[in-house]
Protein 1
Amino acid sequence: MAKVILIVDDSESIREVVSFTLENEGFNVLAAVDGNDALRFLDNSPIDLIITDLHMPNMDGIALIKEVRAMEFYKHVPILFLTTESQAAKKMEAKEAGATGWIIKPFVPTKLIAALSKVMR
Amino acid sequence: MSENDFSNVNSYLSFKLGEEEFAANVGKVLNILEMTKITEVPKAPNYMKGVINLRGAVLPVIDTRVKFGMSPAVYTPNTCIIVLDIDMDGESVHVGALVDSVQAVLELEKEKILPPPSIGSKYKSEFIEGVANVDDRFVMILDMDMVFSSNELTNMKDTAVETAKTADIEEVGL
Amino acid sequence: MDNFKKKFIEEAYDLIDSLEKSLLVLEDNPEDIQIIQQVFRIMHTLKGNSAMFGFVSIDQFTHNLETLYDSIRNGKLKVNRSILDITLESVDHLKRLLDEDSEKDVDVDRQHQALLDRMAQIVVGASMTSLELKLDKSTGVTSDGNAKTYFIYFEPKEEIFRNGTNPLYLIDELHTLGHAISFAHLTKVPRIADIAYDQCYTYWEIILATPHNVGAISDVFIFVEDESTLEISQISNKNLLADNDFLAALNGIAAEGNDIGIAAIQKLASRANHTKVKAQLEMANNGKSKPKDTIISSIRVSADKLDQLMNLVSELVTTQARLSLFAEQNPVPGLLAISENVQKLSRQLRDNAFSIVLIPIDNMLTRFQRLVRDLSKELGKDVVFLTEGAETELDKTIIEGLTDPLMHILRNSLDHGIEDAAVRKQKGKPAQGKIILKAFYSGANVHIQIYDDGAGIDPEKIRHKAISQGIITPEKKLTNKEIFDIIFLPGFSTATKVTDVSGRGVGMDVVRRKIAEIRGEVEVDSELGVGTTITIKLPLTLSIIDGLLVKIEDTSFVIPLSVVDKIFAIEHAQLVNKFNNLVVLDGAQVPFFYLREEFNMDVNDTTHFEEIVVVKFEEKRVGLAVDTVIGEYQAVLKPLGKHFKSHEMISGATILGDGTVALVMDTNKMIKTFLSKAPIDK
């Protein structure tokens, strides 16, 4: 049974790239445009990894991470957030909120896969 | 007082060969040496006086008078060697020019320098950059690269004017 | 970064040179495993380095070559003609790739692909796995041989599950880096009653053997390093996990159930190291030599530094001359002895510095071997290229100036000299043509001779051509030597057809000019139907020479000691008013030149005796009469400069201890000049 990955990013190109890369690796990819949108996928159906941007309208990444961690079903789901180097403070914040790890933008597909393998089997 | 390219005034070192006064752009002048023992190199052209030791390097010395078709220099206490940096075929070459005396450093404005006379001049115009009137004297400003680059005894004199070939003929005014 | 790139390119050229050499040797010894290993090693290094500095095409290209030679060394493939050919072509291609601009060249691209295809074909025949560059997870690591051993202590904080981390995944990732043994410790696990299910109580001690560096290891823990205790220490630069003794001891400690601890591990590690070293020692003592890595027996030095070294040595020699002079003129007790010592040391230093700057021509020869090999194939001729005197040493600038002219001469020999196999058979010559390059010292010169056993040069043909070109008149009598000399005139050619290889067989004037630029001379000798010999004579233009200091009038001259044969005192009367220029010395008739006369100086009537220095000239002895001979002198050569470039007799100058300038004679040129203005006029 293929694993399910949820990508949350308000940028369509990012969603495309990530979906394409991960689908090629054999994953099922769900895509949401922001935190709010993402929540509709979190209906207790299996999700094996969440990848989220931090800066999004309606509900940003930090808030989403907190929400996810508050849910019993998804308490331990691995969460990776997308960040640029300069956002050191944000990184701390995201980790405090419960993120498992991060991917630095801009990233190449191989880096994405490498990050994945740290938190998922 | 600027000595460099951007102003209208350029500096020249003037020197004398016999009674005639010449000048060279100080940009080409590295040094002025007192007369010293010159080692003659056998079978060298007439104007090659020989070589000297300049701080561990061997410097060729040219008898400028002979280059100009005059009789060879006779050494006096005023005789000296001007060390020049000449552009020869794209290479920077050091050469010593033996002159009868060194006069002064002249500051000449560009406007004061007249083009070399095209006819009636004693010397070929390709060697002369211009002529200046300084205190009622005429100073010929030379293109030192041209003068000292030529390997053979290029006749510096305008052959139309010259009547005799041997270097023994003295020029008027000497 | 550019500096690193430059370094890489330099190194790459060197590697490619040794590669070429090895390949040529491999051609004659296709079974030699040592050479195959060497070739493989070079490919491997090239590949590894090129990837680091952005030379992607070289990386890809050498990857395939490396795989190819890996198969060869594993016995899966045997070295054959086509493999060698493609390897040599690849070498040429590599050189092109090193020129960055060529990366954009379409032709280079095409060739790149063509070569890769051919390689693939060869390899497919031996049923190997695909040559394509695969993105390996284990980032370009090959053998276990470079693995180092690390000890890793990893204790995540108890809340680590809360952010979705699974430490087991990290342990797994460690395992992918190499070979690892992990020990999970449960000593922190509290009583069942107190266990919180979402707390992590486990911690790990892991021994990891990996070729990766510490960075790669800590990378694994990048997401959790803030929330864990992490220690990574290298305990050995070898793979201890391959060491059975180590493993046994390790397992022994682990079985006790407690933490192993870094201290215990380090003790085990050093014990393991010692045993290994002792074993190696034993093997060495038993005469069994282990295959050693290439020992660095040479280092790369920049040319600038060499120039600097030579300059300093020159100045030292000059100053030492002043010291000697001073010591002689000022008798201070002990000073003379010291000055002699300094002279001895500076001479030794000078010799040593020269041996560094002089390079054996051996390096140049590889290029020529390639040329002969490739060209003879192209022309369909079977030619062997032999060399003698490859150890002869020359200044590197001279070697650089020689390469072009020699290539040209070789091309001529191959194209116009050596005949086709059929023609040779007809003439009764062996089917295989021979070209021999000989280098040797002769007097003050180095001679480089190229001999071919080809068709030779027909003097009659040259004569005719010369007459038809108006160079000589039909009546003129010329010796063979003079006829052959005509070849060097610009525009002269007797080749009946223009070939691609060496044009009209012309260019001998260019050859002569280029050799003149390095102050050498070139001559041709030939026997029709038998062969041709071209001789290049080069002066040893070392910047410090041993010379003989002589005086004429007020000027000091230096005659290179290497040409000096003997010195005689001579009566003045014998030098002047002679009908011929011969003098009897030691019972033999010696031709001589009175230098004062030759130099147009006044003839010295005042002294009774002068000195005559007999020097070697070609195969003869010629005397040069001077005023006095002062003595031996170590002369630091200084150039006279462009103004004297064409001077025929003086090759340089030197500065004496008292600051005056002495002129260094080129006796060969000098005597030749004197002879050419010779007897008829005198």
Protein 2
Amino acid sequence: MVNFIEILIRGVMLGSVYALVGMGLTLVWGVVGIVNIAHGEFVMLGAYFTFWAFTLLHLNPLLSAAFSIPLFFFAGMVIHKRITERLVREQELSALILTFGMSILIWNLAQFFWTNTYRSVSYLTGNFPFMGLVLAKSKTVSFGLAVGITAALFLFLKYSKWGKAIRATSQNSEVALVCGINTVKTRALTFGMGIALAGAAGAIISLQWVIFPQMGGSYISKTFAIVVLGGLGNIHGALVGGFIIGILEAMVTQYLSAKMAQIIPSMTILIILLLRPTGLFKK
Amino acid sequence: MKTRFGLGIILVMAFLISVPFFATDYWITLLTLILIFAVYASGWNLFSGLTGYTNFGLAWFIGVSGYVSSLLIADYKWLWLFAWPAGALFTGLVSIGVGYILLRIKGVYFAISMVALAEGTRELFGTEYLTPITHGGKGLPFVAGIRLPTLYWSILLVAFFSMMICYKIFSSKFGLRLIAIREDEQAAETLGIHTTKDKIIAFILSAFLVGLAGSIHFTYQNYIDPTFAFNIHLTLTPIVMTLFGGVGTVFGPVIGATLFTLIHEILWAELTLLYMAIFGGILMTLILFFPQGLLGWMKEKRILPRIRKI
Amino acid sequence: MEPILRIDDVVKKFGEVVALDHCSFAIESGSMTGLIGPNGAGKTTLFNLITGVLQPDSGHIYLKGEEITGKKPFEIARRGVGRTYQIIRIFPKMTLLENLIVVGKGKERKMVERAMDFLRFVKLEEKKDDYASDLSFGQQKLLSLAQVLMIDPQLILLDEPAAGINPTLQNELMASIHRLNEEGKTFIIVEHDMNVIMNHCQNAIALNYGQKIAEGSCSIIQKDERLLEHYFGR
């Protein structure tokens, strides 16, 4: 039974990170109406940012998120204004292909400049005991950071002026427009936030796992599964979805096999889209 | 104009048929690959280009058909002549069920569900449970006893056949109904169009053609494994090719396949390291500035007539 | 004689909201009936139920005596029900001619002839090769009507046909509708403009909050107190 708790905790910790990635994607999808296939690449860039800041500038990885988040936010807004805003009313294929092209561009540039060598941020090593279990420090701190950022996100969306604008635009952009909300600016802001969340997730991931240019790809299918589970644009749903996928992955890897765990995202997507396409949760 | 067009086609076909008699293996191989992908692209365009349902799971058709025909050749000693259509027919049949279930899903969700199908099948074929049949992750090398020229002529025939089908359908009422589905599916339904039936027929046709080319593709490679067979690149490349040439046009996919392969060859030769990055950039530029592709642009500028037949 | 359309105790809910609340009425063949009521009264929902786009939670719908409850939209359309939408839904990237041909059944040549007939009927025959998206708002409405006529319906549901077009075009449109009515086609027309209803329809049905609050000939409806209250705030 102790084994089970350990697996559960592992799943929860995994899930916290997945949820962060998922929330970023679903936020953009719901408000801007664009499926950002390159979302995983921004996670990768976030991880590399932390790595290079740590390696070259000796910046404490726990602090680098304080720098990368605003940077990614602004980068996201610029990318949106120049590129993705144009596609807002186009058919979905355009956004899919555009972001796919962006994804290829980014990870190949990363590969060109930084090579395929696996990198890691060895800042928090070792374990510590907790209630009879052994937990890795890096994973625990990552979990804490993820929870913290998620909480900040929810507070922002609930109480700030822009947060309310985002929620309004997500529900009905035409009505929002009529209410005087600057939907263009809101979309840019949201896209920036999405990218910032991806970058933050990347920073957190860099603490626990290896970093390499193509890592974005390994996140994208799980992220889609989370977004589909939670429902398009539903941030709360993505949060829960992230944990579900994380726990499922931990369980299946332990009790069946790692290979079987790979099928989870695809199966989840198919099952949900067939049975409850709007996601498990009501908005 | 019609006779000039027909004459042009005959000349092109005559040239293509004669290629194995004078060209080197390099060129025959290159053309073979162009033709395979031209069929992939045309097949994709036939369904997605007309109905607007973005099929992001083309690799599924390719992989399923590829596996059926390759296994028939390798494990059951079938002749390639029968194994290929068998693979395609199997894929067509199974796609009836898949289409019936998945075509209820609309928009981006459909695209995602098709990716999930392809990816899921890829993972599934690699698991321990299916290895007895699929030879699992270690793959299946095999020889089909066919020479390159014969293979080339086979895919040339399939490509010609596909183009004819596309030509007929695009200018038919069936084609118009598919476009109506893209324009406004619900309105089409309330006007008496049986959208489900029309969608599924187009889907099956697409599955068959793409599957047939897939069978030939893996026989050509003399090898198949799950990562290779259900690879996302097999989905994305034909789509990008169609975008180059013009989505929803008859000859867009073929022209796009040729253009793409040429650009690919040039970029690869000159700029190997940054090739993919540049390719990503080209993709983005294409979508932002030329979403209608070459033929679409030519029709807009009235260089080409705005008819459905091309 | 069997009414062409019979709505029998139909209920439709969207979550907690009751869009149609035990609605019942009958439409006589060859009539022109107005469907009136404030926004959100359930008029478009009713159209969606009749055309099969939505299914009622309970109740039955009969077309020419046959039950069509739960049938798919294309089946109902093929049984002779045509419908236009409040927000025009034609096929923008197809030509006018294609917009009509795609809907028709049978041989191509005959289809083209019929399509041209209907284009002439709405006076758009010269634009047959133009893209539907190039038409003006009013012309698109006419195209929409021509499209519906292609399926040879006996019952035609019009959702705000007169909205947003100038009075001259409005009169032409209503004149065309009367001609079709004289040929035996039944019309149900949703309109906010009471004058249109009063001047052109024999009967009217009034809905409010999903309930039928009045039904009868237009002259009677005009004098009904409750309705006047709702519309004119008296």
Protein 3
Amino acid sequence: MGDGFPRGAWGDGAHGDPGPEVLLPAVTAEDLLNGHLLLVPEEFRPLADTVAALGGPPSAVELREEAQARAAFRALRSGTLDDPGVSSHTLPLELRAANGSSRSRRSARARHRSTGSTRPPSRRGARLGFVSGVAAVVIAAVVGFAYAGGVFSAHVKTVNVAASPSGVRPSDSASGSAGVAGVSASPTPADQPTPTVDVGVGNASADRDQALCRAWLKNPWWPGVKNWDHEDFNTLSAIAGGPQMVLFYCWKKLPRDYGGTGPALHYPPGYGNGHWASMPDIKPPAPGNGPAQGGDSGDGNGNSGPSAGTQGRH
Amino acid sequence: MVGEEFAALLEAARDNDEEAFSVLWRDANPALLRYLRVVAPDHAEDVAAETWVQVLRGLRTFTGDESSWRAWLFTTARRRVLDQVRHRNRHPTEPLDDISAGEVPRAPGAEQIAMDNIATEAAIALVSRLPEQQAEVIMLRVVAGLDTDVVAEMLGRSPGAVRVAAHRGLKRLATLLSGAGVTL
């Protein structure tokens, strides 16, 4: 295989020269990998926040297949999903060739037999029957599990997910593991007019970037969304350093009060009342001024994100 | 990670306790999906579903602690990805239309993925820019929570090689962040 995992167009890993290499001490690298993010020097805070974000709280989409998983579990319990009682392995149907290397070592008595088979037909037939039965059960289970509404589903339903306290890293990580609180999502409004990009006076470049990000977040670009302005997205992609950098770039560029009033961070209108990953240096509001936004990193809802450092503040 | 309750949950799940299994699934599936979105971005959900079917089949015979559980889960997922790669190599398909991979329509909920957890999405996008092995090692170490020796066994590499790949991947991530305008 040679580590040749399939990669989509956005993830082939070959993106040219990222620039001068950063010197990262081995101790710091191990701290990052082991989740000891509080031990990471401040100069590597953005990297620590990125690592923390990899293990951030689960999203609604990542938990939406739970019903299907439960259905498969019930199928196993009822015996519909065959449990052979042996250790699992990926390829249960490794069929050996009928004539393996034993041909050269066939006994004298065996040589007198027909060369068509080295096994009595009845044993071979029973073995093939067992293998066919196992194959049929495996195929039926995979199809049934997938078709139950999971991987073949063409539409994603809007869901409201209760707070989920689970996390993938121990609680000593900088992001905490408070989980997602009250995340809800609304469908993107259909057939919106193409967003216009308003560029204000003053710092034209920064305003343009913000405007592009705002317009993009109103209708996040995915292939097939016809009312998105490709030219604007391509501009944003070029600024950000690639299409897959746009999210990160806009996260840094938009002001803290984007989408809401006061100190709290909210999703843009139309995306429900979830909370964005907070900027690392947001200070908790005074009592009575709205929801807490967390301290160093994390907004009390278990969210954290790549640090914007000391640049790009608006 | 589930923590101290893992042993009890596993035992309950083996005793057909659906709620116990659901806790295990909710704990592990997000990490599994994130890993698969880096190593097999076009088929992450398919492979995740197949992985859980395989895991369910062997649930009653699995023994071990939570670390072993995760190692088994991600090893199973990795093998499913390799199976898919081998299958596709044997049965290449031609697209019906002349559409590039980046233009294939995605599920309408894709934007919901982005908005639900923008920081995680941004981080996954950054890791996806790394060379394949570095990206995979970082996801297995950080997201799956596996230690170096376990990852080395999964990948068929030495622990030293895994450590080097992880460190190089982190350095490259730091460089990418630096190049994106973040002060280090």
Protein 4
Amino acid sequence: MSGTARFDLDDASVIVIVGSGAGGGTLGNELAQKGIKVVCLEAGPHLTLGDIRNDPAAMFEKLSWLDPRVGAGDLDPQLPAWICKTVGGTTVHWAGAALRFQPHEWRARSTYGEIAGASLLDWPTTHEEMQPWYDRAEKKMGVAGSSQTGLPRLPGNNNYKVLAYGARKLGYREVHTGNMAINSQPYDGRPGCLQIGFCMNGCAIGAKWSTLYTEVPRAEATGHFELRPACHAVRIEHDAAGRANAVVYKDANGVDQRQRARIVCVAGNAIETPRLLLLSSSGTFRDGLANSSGQVGRNYMVHTTGAAFAVMPGEVHPDRGTQMAGIVMDEAPHRKNRDFVGGFLLQTLPPQGPLGFARNAKPGAWGRLYARDIEGYRNVAGLWIVGEDLPQAGNSVTLDPKVRDQHGLPVAHVRRVDHPNDATMRKRAWEVVRSIYEAAGARTIHTRGPFPATHNMGTCRQSTSPDDGVCNKYGQAHDVGNLFIADGSQFVSSATENPTLTIVALAIRQADHIARRMVRREL
Amino acid sequence: MSERRPTVLRRDILKIGGATLLPLASILGLTAPIQRAHAGARAFESNSFDRAQAGLLLSVARTLFPHDFLPDKQYMKIVAVLDAKAAADKSVAMMVGAALGAFPDDFATMKEAKREDYLRTLEGSPFFRLVYQETLVGLYGDPAVSTLLGYEGSSVEHGGYLKRGFDDISWLPTNKPLLK
């Protein structure tokens, strides 16, 4: 153990990574393990396990990205997305679902064909070439239910049992407690899950994988990795040849610092990543860095989501145990005989307290009947729908013309509207959910639309042709050879599955690619 | 009077529109305004509303989210929060006063269904939005109420639910093949 490294601002041999979540944290550790020097800039504070509380409101304030943003279209105007600003990024908050893409999801354009209004494209990456990287990701993350770890699936809680009973009664077969990056037994120095609940407030014992207490400290232990928390990247600079050579950031005191760099990797989640590229426009790159295609910020995808809360005839105590405790996968495949393309998953989700239920089960509802539902809080079962969201060129992240953040910089203007395919899929999913809970004996079922998005993707997508996207299959920018996109921004399709496992698998592969190219003096 | 009221209301709507922008966490239903924690700690002493107005607001709050097992004093905490807001901001006091002034004289003694019918006509108004919001968070954000409703709160200090009933559901039909 060499201890935490300290690199000079003028050290031009380091790789600068912006972000410490699923993409940046993983990439940083993978590079540091290979002996490559990394400076990781993280906008948020460095919390520890001791800061985690079973308190949704308090943890929302501690973990979330609450700097101003502007939402437009169908999005909440104040909180267009619910993602994190903290060391570990959204891996502190995520529920742990670790699912591989289905083969067809890497070839969305070929599989679904031309769809009006959708900017579909096939990934330059194939299903086959990703499998070994998924293997490594599952092993790293301790995925329960993966042959790579040998860890059995987690036991199912009450909320899961209601879902499983109803779903099986309807004939669904792929119903189980999911492949989860939550230890079903002690693994990799972290304890087994105690069914505490409150997973999305951060796991208080570290049973759920997060870069906060896995990748980041391991990277630091190599002596090749320096984490700089509360350091907010504001601009990527380049030399006369158009190669990235420094990142300017605001340090914890709001003072501008400039870290020189050999390579720059951006992993700020699919809203801040394109924002940073757009903020980095220059005389050479007038429309933003790496944006000759005009695709930076476009094709913003969030998954087609919705939720349902059902009041059952007996007690469920939905807050007990893992929040994403079970899954129905039968509707996930693409089927030609449906009136929408792609598929959807159903995953349990608790209401998070009577206030959460009252506000969210049927937004705006009140009166005697609704109060009776709230009085049935103990009996509530809940889930959310996660379906493929089609890319649309007009769903986008741009710089807001008016609103500025605490540093005086234009904030992200995030716009999203449903594609007709999304609306049709959601309607069908709600019908399925109603049937499931009715089959389990529900007294009342409330279905509702999306929450602020936790899955954000597509705004710097991979492409074979530099005209169609921002980066190649390794996340390397088409326009700037030593600039990499290391998060969900590089997704070409949203797929049906929760994105984290794929972000981690791509980051491991990207680290391997960068190291090989460095050895060959190509980077 | 009939000349002035629309003017007053229009100005109030603007002010209230700004004042009631929700805290971000409340979009997710996670949190309640901070002032609720202390508002009900003392017996209600009206600063802004008269006795009749306070009584009407109590009736409105109970009609919005009626829980027969809760005493009036629980709902009076919400009236106290509204009273404090009105005392702190004259435009709120005027807006609430004007809305209550237009209520049917016998609102508080009307049957619940009739009270609901009347409140439905107010949905979307600044008055309704304010009272709805404060009632929702004042009730369900109060640990005394959420505990009564079965919310069990933090579990990490008790070792989670692994050995405390995370899978103790008893009422589902015990069809073994289905539940294997």
